[in-house]
Design brief:
5 strands, Rossmann fold, single chain, alpha/beta, five-stranded parallel sheet, elongated
Length: 150
């Protein structure tokens, strides 16, 4: 899958952050959508499949850590990166315990964000490849067993 096919959802109540981060990611070839509330993020994640979600910890209608729990129900393989201006150890621990794949503090260096996304996407691709190989092996084994019974 090329970068052009990789989709990212940015969830932040700050329109400026969404716009700036979106432009940086689009320039690198990603397809980007934004949401300013948790409700909007859930709605968008039900309508589209996202490879990555970048979530602000503080949203107007829900805590980002609560959103972490809601998103896997719609797209289980989505990479979830917490992005916060409230760098508290308690927030980081809670986010990671709730399923965040990474935790980045604002203001963040765009290169750090891009590197984190690329590393997580590589891990995602490797996991998908291993799953496909397991399914293929399982199907081959089942077919051989069925044929041997004929």
């Amino acid at each position: 899958m090329s970068k052009k096919e990789k989709t990212i959802l940015i969830v932040d109540d700050d329109a400026g952050i969404c716009r700036t981060l979106g432009l940086i990611l689009e320039e690198k070839g990603y397809v980007v959508q934004t949401a300013h509330t948790g409700k909007d993020a859930i709605k968008k994640s039900k309508a589209s499949v996202f490879n990555v979600a970048i979530l602000d910890v503080k949203l107007p209608d829900v805590e980002g850590t609560e959103l972490l729990k809601a998103l896997p129900e719609t797209t289980p393989k989505m990479i979830k990166i917490m992005f916060t201006g409230y760098p508290e150890l308690e927030n980081a621990v809670k986010a990671l315990n709730e399923g965040a794949d990474a935790y980045i503090m604002k203001p963040a260096d765009p290169d750090k964000i891009l590197k984190t996304i690329e590393e997580k996407l590589e891990q995602q691709a490797n996991t998908e490849k291993m799953t496909e190989e397991k399914i293929s092996t399982f199907l081959e084994t089942r077919v051989q067993k069925l044929l041997s019974k004929l």
